[in-house]
Amino acid sequence: MLDGYMQESELENLDEREKEIELIKNIINTRRDLKNVDRNFEYAQDDLVDYYIYQMKANQAKLNYLIKMAKMKGITVDMINDIKFRLSS
Question: What does pTM read for this prediction?
Fold first, then answer.
């Protein structure tokens, strides 16, 4: 596992429930990453402004994709918040 994300080959060995949990974890991690980039952007100067804009766009595109996948699987916000709560405990 790299940076908290599973590689596609690792996902193939999981059952559907485990895949849903991994999808939810990815949504939570990507939202956290987007918030961190947004905070860093507020203090960016010179060339770092472009870097953080790129990072925001990339993370937002990833989050949009993950949310689309979650909707297709019938995953709700309550399920995401439940997993987030369990991870923080």
Answer: 0.76
